[in-house]
Request: fold
Amino acid sequence: MPKATEPKRTALFISHATPEDNHFVRWLGAKLTAMGYEVWADVMCLHGGTDWAYELETALKTRAFKVLLVCTPGGLEKRGVRNEIEMATNLARQLEDDSFIIPLRLETYDAIFRIAHAQYIDFKRSWAAGLAELTELLRDQGVPRGSTGPLESWLESHSDGSDRLLQRSEPLVSNWLQVEGQPRNIRYIESRVGASLERFQNRLLHDWPVVPFRSGVITFAQPDEAGNLANELPGKEVAALSTAEFLTGGWEELKIAPLEARRMYANLGSQAFDRFCRKRGLTGHLGSGQRVSWFGDIKTTPQGRVKFEWPYRRGSRQVIGQSGKRNVHWHFGVNAQLRTSPIAHFRLSARLVFSENGLDAIEDKKRSHSLRRSFAKGWRNARWRDMLCAYLWWMAEGKASIWMPVGAEAYIQVAVPPMQFGCPVTITEGKEANQADDDDDPDIPDDLPDEEQSEEPDQ
Amino acid sequence: MIHSHRPQIVYIDEPKLEFRYGQQLEYARDGLYLYGPVDAEAFPRQIRYGFIGTKAGLARFERWATQVSSFISTPPPRKGAKEKEPHHVPFPGFSEAFNALWSNKPAKVIDDLDEEDLKRQLHIANRHEAIKSVVDAYVDRLVADKRRDEDPPAFWYVVIPEFIYELGRPQSVVPRAERVEGRVAISQRDAQKLSKQPNLFGFDEEDAQVYKYERNFRRQLKARLLDDHIVTQLVRESTLTPGDFLKSNGDLKRRVEDPATIAWKLCTGSYYKGGGRPWQIASMRPGVCYVGLVYKKQNDTETARYSVCAAQMFLSDGEGVVFRGALGPWFHPDTKQFHLDAEAAARLVGTVLDEYKRRHGGEPTELFIHAKSSFNDDEWAGFQAACAGTSTNVVGIQISDAWDQLKLFRQGSYPVIRGTALVTNNKSGYLFTSGFVPRLGTYMGPDTPNPLHVCIRRGDAPLETVMRDVLALSKINFNTCLFNDRSPVTIRFADAIGDILVAAPLSKEPMLPFKFYI
Reply:
């Protein structure tokens, strides 16, 4: 026992080899701290410098009540540990405490001269059993305990390499294109008496988006001077309503409920997008979920990087490319759905389409699925974000909006780039990924749980 | 121009979990490594488990059980990866992580399952018969032991050979040349007819029963052990000792996770199934209760409308109880949604309130009902009726997958941060429960993160509170020890539980903790 329990000597000092025994010391030190002991150990300081070494030495000299010496053959060879043993031995003499040094046997070691007489606590057989024995000893030896001390350093050291959340806002770009403008009115056009209604309601025969309704169509378009809504499709405007009213309250006169009205509007919007893409030379590919993705082929779309430079969004990416390894062409494609809530916007879903010849999509669903899975496995944030922007830049021909015709002189106008939102937090990020096109993003763990494991909770 | 409120982004702080010594941390593996489980007491908990499998399986299991009784380091850094991969946490050893007594020898061993017998049974051409007879082999032994043993183990490790995994699923195909004749002569179609017109064909009714069991080894096994209250932990031999299963070129046949990760997952599950509570949500409001609603169509029902409704009551301390609601015409083909009628809804919430009272001595102050689908007027009237006269505020929340509906891309290379939410109005928004996690230094998912759509359909509660709860409930899957799941436990286990409830005919309507189902 120490001669005089000086009040300031309250700490447990763990002497150990760094980094070899860090895992053990964190496991032990965190618990001792949580139990109310004051603990000092080299591992607590993550970014050690000269100050830390000095602080640690001072702590040993002036604060240590006991020294826990982690014993492994390699550790006891280390100069730092040897120095600490030397200091501790001198202190033990000064304090007249024979059990000032408590060896913790982590592995079998050859006892060195200074500690040869000290009785060790065995952690080799089991850390848990060792801890039980140690806590008993600490209690018996009257090591001072206070309330739980500061624990952050254990977690910090334990989770070394983690990123930090910063309370600083950053812009996030979405996949939503805000609708900036659309025709003031929506119309109900009936087919002329005597003409084929079936033809009139066949949207393939129309020049503009239409939705079949009763004996005509709902559309933004109007019949031309000759009374034709499209070639050889004579029609008569029966009623018109403000688009805004249509979307909020439906069309009472025609008994169209609000929900139905919004569905029709979404339908007109999808048609407008599809027609626009076709006109732009893109190809539609019917994928899973019965959605058409519009992609560019090697004849219509630039094959190199597409540069985009809106005021707040700049960069460059390929939107089509070739994988030599897999011997396929890949094409960035997009499907769009018009939605009214919470604000009118087109929702874009991105898909990769693959082709053998740079033109025609591979129809084999199984093969394109597995290509998608393996080829885009490493693609995360930056890649998809910039492909979307590059695609939209090319589509909008560098302008700030895309105008989709829905009638003669009538457009649905959407803003590009997609809507951005301010996020109140961000993270520290080592370096920007500015890598070659076929590289992976940097942050992909190799060991993602596979699907089958996530489906079935047992292993 | 169209005028409307522009949505806003909010960030919801990562909920913390509570561990031993009252310590609160974000990541379960940190909390267990540094401090231990929340329910730890001075005397370590004894984990008593049994083993059932083949002799070869037992040898493999014991090698693994020995491996997890001491420190397992993180895997070496991969080529091209970051120098430090903070999502990896070494496993300190079972006793070291859980303050528990772990033995590398099972308390009880059943290893008389013969590999050749099982193989032959699994190759029976009639898949229903094949899988049922293999499950029989396990169930018979486990049930017999349960009835014989006065001090049965808390749970059983069911260690399955690879061929059971491969041939024990509905989509498994046995090559024609390898099929063996079975005993059941009646076809599935005839069995269905027989159920309407008994003895029409003179077939054995017992044979026809085989079609009531699902062709899924795992689900059927769990379902058939419910009556006898037997908890299991299924694991493939190749998960325990992947090095035993090599291709001819020396590579692993099956790519599994690193040993420390597997140890975290299986051992956390074992601690939980052994009766422990590894962690709980920290600083939870008192008096909160969650219910996850599940609907599953039963295979052998005659009309498409009939389905089983199951509910899971979930408390913030991680305790969960599963109720099995009765079979009913809950599916509405016109809307493609499931809804209870008012009476069944009231009965269900009534049971939840009773159970809560029994455990806590009073009514919950808040009762959140989580469902994938919306709630209709009848259903809601039933929920409210059950809460009438109590001080319980009942809130109906729809939590649906918003796959592709909203993407948010960050400036840098890392994906959107978990906890980011786009609030569209005071009742709904998109919540990214998966995304970049600063603690892990990565995003543990495929592609770009997709949000959940969280919508307060009925009743009243602050949206941010609802979202914070959803985030917290995504962190208490005791079967994985991951940082988080994408779905809250109310919804996630909903499906798993429903799948098991319909996998075999049940004689009772058991009310059991959810460890029986996962």
